[in-house]
Amino acid sequence: MTLTQSPAPQRSLQVALGERSYPIHIGPGLLGDATWLSPYLAGRQVMIVTNETVAPRYLARCRQGLPEGLEVEELVLPDGEATKTLESVSRIWDALLAAGFNRRCTLIALGGGVIGDMVGFAAACYQRGVAFIQVPTTLLSQVDSSVGGKTGVNHPRGKNMIGAFWQPQAVLIDTDTLLTLPSRELSAGLAEVIKYGLIRDVGFLGWLEENMTALRDLDASALTQAIERSCTIKAEIVAEDETEQGVRALLNLGHTFGHAIEAHQGYGNWLHGEAVGVGMLMAAELSQRLGWLSVAEVARTAAIIEAAGLPLLAPADMTAEDFLDRMRLDKKNVDSRLRLILLRGLGDACLHDETPSGLLTELLASFPRR
Amino acid sequence: MTLTQSPAPQRSLQVALGERSYPIHIGPGLLGDATWLSPYLAGRQVMIVTNETVAPRYLARCRQGLPEGLEVEELVLPDGEATKTLESVSRIWDALLAAGFNRRCTLIALGGGVIGDMVGFAAACYQRGVAFIQVPTTLLSQVDSSVGGKTGVNHPRGKNMIGAFWQPQAVLIDTDTLLTLPSRELSAGLAEVIKYGLIRDVGFLGWLEENMTALRDLDASALTQAIERSCTIKAEIVAEDETEQGVRALLNLGHTFGHAIEAHQGYGNWLHGEAVGVGMLMAAELSQRLGWLSVAEVARTAAIIEAAGLPLLAPADMTAEDFLDRMRLDKKNVDSRLRLILLRGLGDACLHDETPSGLLTELLASFPRR
């Protein structure tokens, strides 16, 4: 773990995927500066897609960051996970076709994970694939969903069930956008930051324990370091396993449980990061029941999740059976085998498909509820 | 041009695309024989998707060609190009989710080009990509759409506007299915066969002129040879240029004009191959106006299209402007430049974006109408 204590204003990483490689640029003031978007435009046609919450704050600044002489369209969708549907993506396709956009157009996803996932999927399938740029404006999308090319929408029967692997041309993370982020959403983003420590980097977990207050106080230096370290780990894993045949599944720590909560509670009622926080704690407790984590390590996991301002209790109205019903549809499962990401230690996640079902049911039944 | 005169019952080709390579098997009796489907199944969950016309003829036989012990689902969609919509693909996703199918499932596309395109697109986006097998039952899909991984659906504003490049695990062409194909659809398929001669193989064009009667009489040997030669040319071009950055665009000879006819007339009223036939003749005439083809070569083009039983006249109610409006949306265009596939000679197609617009408008205005 080597984080410098005084970061330069802009940091850049590379996601190494051969001819699909792309940079992640992190820093303040990227949004309105034309030097950042220009190199990644495929042609003269550009559509900025954002939502009703982000548009009044950042749409004008984003547009200002485009060079002169382009054909620029804007599309403002409703906000929220409940809008992450095929119907919303169809609205993007309709707008692209109405504008006569061709295969050399570029979509810009300006917003959080919902916008990034939908715009990426729209780009993946418009005329069989066009360019897009991720401009994530929430911590969660900056450290997770904007990197790695997972795109898609939800289906009433499951989260992200329809989608594609489609890599952006670049990810532009303007850390200034976090200054207007509601604290509940900041906490949700911190869940994914904690995840990187839990799955791969116990040193980073220690750094987070020391710096959690600074992060929640929006300390620019701490945020930049947390984002950079998170993106670095994500980029490494994605470069190893772009389409999740193996190690990439580890990024789903807490997500199998978390997706079940989100789907059961109705998308948007629990934030994704909140559900993942509880899900990571469930994974830690199950790992402890398997003899892999100590009680103290589970307590340490709970403490950092709580320090991030995240809930520790599962929804009151969800039975063990409710969890299992949703978890059986998880994309990681192979044939009828349930596969879970668990912790062999802090900073050491593994994919496990041999959890005795009694142990899992017991955990789900006894886990504290609200 | 070396076509053997007595083909073996089964022929196999390979589409060389690195780790996405796959075989094309051609011959009679493949459908009910379990040796053909089994090697290409990703797991134990299989869904056969077909349409109302094909189901009574071949669904039972296809199912019989699956090994024992699988979880098999069937989905029968309505028939016709008008059904090639996002809504139909959504029905496939709904059925997959209702059946609890996971990422290791396999879709089988049993039918013509519409089924193949939709099932391929459904496979491309279900859980970000699952396996599928093409089992084309029309000549058109056997020689063209089932090979090369172009999948997708139509949009009211344009054909194949929403889709993905997604390669099948295998293409199984049972030539017996042509015995029940209506002659109008056989002719439509022959348009794409003729296309291969026109773009890349004047020797094959000569062979087609000699064997057109045998082909239309469903001579098994002639059909097998025509399919094999067509698939070979298509596989070569796809291997060179999977995502149509260059040479693959040549496969669109006649399609820019043809798509305009299909879209203007309402999908399904003109068969795709019929529209392509007229489109190829338009391309030949425009090539002649550019000084590349002789009048005799255009006449030879018209003669082989007519011999295949295809129309030579454009729709009476389509003006030059109607054509241009539709053609401007073509996926090959870059920025606002119209790109056409034309013929520098018979068997020698090229991508051209410098056709004087006056010449094009003149051709469109003067081309014979019904």
Automatic annotation (TrEMBL), chains A, B:
List the InterPro entries hit by this protein, alphabetically.
Dehydroquinate_synthase (IPR050071), DHQ_synth_AroB (IPR016037), DHQ_synth_fam (IPR030963), DHQS/DOIS_N (IPR030960), DHQS_C (IPR056179)
The domain of life is Bacteria
Cofactor, how bound (note):
Binds 1 divalent metal cation per subunit. Can use either Co(2+) or Zn(2+).
The alphabetized UniProt keywords are: Amino-acid biosynthesis, Aromatic amino acid biosynthesis, Cobalt, Cytoplasm, Lyase, Metal-binding, NAD, Nucleotide-binding, Zinc
Where on this chain does Zn(2+) bind? 192, 255, 272
> Which coarse location class describes where this protein primarily resides?
cytoplasm
Cellular component GO terms held in the UniProt record: cytoplasm
Record-linked CDD domains: DHQS
Cofactors named for this entry? NAD(+); Co(2+); Zn(2+)
Q: Which reaction does it catalyse?
A: 7-phospho-2-dehydro-3-deoxy-D-arabino-heptonate = 3-dehydroquinate + phosphate
Gene Ontology biological process terms from the UniProt entry: amino acid biosynthetic process; aromatic amino acid family biosynthetic process; chorismate biosynthetic process
| Pathway field | Metabolic intermediate biosynthesis; chorismate biosynthesis; chorismate from D-erythrose 4-phosphate and phosphoenolpyruvate: step 2/7
Return the broad EC class.
lyase
Q: Could you tell me the EC number(s) of this protein? A: 4.2.3.4
Q: What does the UniProt entry say about where the protein is found?
A: Cytoplasm
MF term (GO), any: nucleotide binding
General function of this protein = Catalyzes the conversion of 3-deoxy-D-arabino-heptulosonate 7-phosphate (DAHP) to dehydroquinate (DHQ).
Name the chain's protein: 3-dehydroquinate synthase
The organism named in the record is Halomonas chromatireducens
Lineage from the top down?
Bacteria, Pseudomonadati, Pseudomonadota, Gammaproteobacteria, Oceanospirillales
The gene name reads aroB
